[in-house]
Every structure is written in C-alpha cells, then in structure tokens.
Amino acid sequence: MASQEPQCTPPRPGEDASSADTLARIRATLPSLAPSERRVAETVLADPAQASELSIGVLGERASTSVTTVMRFCRTLGIGSYPQLRLALAAAAARERALGSERPTPGSDISATDTLDQIVSKIIYNEVRALEDSAAGLDVEILGQAVDAVAGARRIDIFGVGASAFVGRDMHQKLHRIGHMAFIWTDRHAALTAAALLRPGDVAVAISHSGETEDTVEPLQAAAERGATTIALTNDPRSTLAEIADLVLTTCARETPFRSGATVSRIAQLAVVDCLFVGVAQRSFDATTVALHETYGVVQRRRRRQPQRRTPADD
User: Fold this and answer.
1) Coil, strand or helix: which one is 186?
2) CB contact set of 247 (below 8 Å; sequence gap of 6+)
3) How high is the pLDDT of residue 69?
4) Hey, how many other C-beta atoms are within 10 angstroms of the C-beta on 61?
5) Closest by alpha carbon to 240, among 219, 269, 210?
6) What is the DSSP string of 99-134?
7) What is the pLDDT of residues 221-266, one digit of tens each?
8) What pLDDT is stored for residue 309 in this prediction?
9) What is the predicted pLDDT for the residue at 3?
10) Which of 39, 122, 260, 279 is geometrically suited to a Cys-Cys bond with 147, CB 3.0 to 4.6 A?
11) What is the model's pLDDT at position 152?
12) Rounded to an integer, what distance in angstroms lies between the CA atom of residue 187 and that of residue 161?
C-alpha cells in the first residue's frame, strides 16, 4: 500500500525547505540515497555552513561527483533549485549554532580518548537532539490518523525485533493497560501467524529504525495484504517499511557507528509511542482515567511498605 509522507520527509518542490530542519531530513534520507548522492549529503552534513557558501560546481567536486548529481540530490530532498538548498542549509546551520550556544556541541561519535565527562556530554546531547529533531519532523496530521486507527481498532498487533522490540513492548503495555486488545510479536514466525489473522478494522504497527529489517517488514506486508491498517514507526521515510505502510510516523535520530542501535533511537521511538498513546487515551478520557487508576492500585498493593522513620518526638 502507498504510504503517506510525514513531515520528516522532504517537502514537495516549491515548498519552503528552509522552514523545516533540512539537516534532520538529510540525515533521515541518508540510508536510502544512491552512493553518489550520499557523498553529497555527507559533504553537506560535515559542514552545513560552509556548504551553503559553495557554488554547485565546487560542492560537486568536494563530493567527488557531478553537478547533475547535486541537482538530483536537491530533487530528492524536494528542493527546486540549488540556491534554495543553499538558503535552507544556511538557515539550518544557524539553528544548529543557536542550539550549540546553549550547550556544548560534541563530536559525532565516541572516541578512544574521550573522558567520561565527554562521553556523558555526547550521549545526552545526541539524545536531546533526537527528541528535538523528531518533534520537528513528526507530522501531526498523520499522527492523528494513527490515533484514530488505533483507538477504533478491534485489535492492535505490534511487530518489532531487537532494540525495537523494547519499544513495542512499551506500546503494548500502555495500550493493554487502558483496555485495548494489543499484542506484541518479537518472533518472525509468530508475527507472520498473527498477521495472517488480521482483517479490515484491525491495526498492525511495525517498529524498525532502519525500516529494512525483514523480520518486521514481512509481517507488516502480510497484515497489509489482509486489509489491516498498517502503521510504520521508522527513522527512514524512504524505507521498505514506509513504502508498505498506510501511515508513517518518523523519528530523526542520529545513530553513529560506535553506538548503532543505541538508546538514542529507542528514546526517539518511545517519545513517538508516548504521543500516539496519549492521543488514544484522550479519546476516552474518563474510561482511561479509571483504567489507569485501577491498574495502578493493583500494582501498588504489591509494593513493600516503607517502615515509618522515627522522629525526635517519638523518643
């Protein structure tokens, strides 16, 4: 099924590219770019401010490619001309500098010589930026459609493996706690079996940072073939998973080679899941409040009571 583009994807030609976080969108499309276009993207991301000042010929030379490839890169981003790309890069670089002035801007990855303080700084910075970029790129209209689908579903089946399975379990627990029939499948065969039983009115949610994990792609495809509403949560809006899904919710998390599959991508995914869950919960506010209160009460009784501390008045 054709996917609906979220805002984390490039705007259509003619739209104001500088109004969005161009760098976040370039990072999101990076895995799916052709090798020559990827070199252009990597050159731009290495120094956006400098790239915004280069002529199209010089940028092509620095990326070891042609002017034609640079123009194709612009079209891939949905930008109509190279001058528009330069303006968008200048605006995005200014935004990066403004954020950097509020907190230190660490390098892109952990190095062998980093101190523990530097490691903490880099990790926290990257995780905060993942949340900021994901919020900027999340299409609220598509999110609303996903909320409608989940809120009205007969059942919700969630597919995710590896790190994404943790996010899927969180989503399952949240939905199940407020009375929705939700299931989490982390085994490929079990997921395919579950998908085979879905029908129109059901919802399938697939979670994959890359959007190319076969164990997640195949169950979502099977769910789509049976008429279920399909939702993809991925960092790559041009991925196979996104192409299959009816609705695409994107994150914009920067994974680095040292921390591939790290917490930064899961934090961004968890934030989007929270947005989806709260939207669903709000649709039946009173019933949700009762369910949350009752489920909290049951668990609370299982906690050990803390002994009362003596005060001077007790002596």
Assistant:
1) coil
2) 3, 4, 142, 145, 146, 149, 229, 230, 231, 232
3) 95
4) 14
5) 210
6) HHHHS----SS--TT--HHHHHHHHHHHHHHHHHHH
7) 999 999 999 999 998 888 999 999 999 999 987 665 555 445 788 9
8) 64
9) 38
10) 279
11) 96
12) 7
| Strands 229-234 and 247-250, bridge-based pairing | parallel
pLDDT along the chain (315 residues), means of 10: 38 40 78 89 90 94 94 89 91 73 52 84 82 85 97 97 94 94 97 97 96 96 98 92 96 64 81 96 85 79 67 57
Task: Tell me which long-range contacts 56-60 makes (C-beta under 8 A, separation of at least 24).
Answer: 56/82
The amino acid present at 161, given as its one-letter code, is V
7 and 20 Cβ atoms separated by less than 8 Å: yes
Tokens of 207: 């979670």
Closest CA relative to residue 66, chosen from 74, 55, 56: 56
Q: What is d(CA 287, CA 53) in angstroms, rounded to the nearest whole number?
A: 56
DSSP helix/strand/coil, 14: coil
Q: Are residues 133 and 1 in contact, defined by beta-carbon separation less than 8 angstroms? A: no
Q: Residue 254 has which token pair?
A: 């920067």
- Give me 197's structure tokens: 């039983």
The residue with tokens 């040292």 is 258
Residue 157's beta-bridge partner residues? 183, 204
- Entry field: residues in the chain: 315
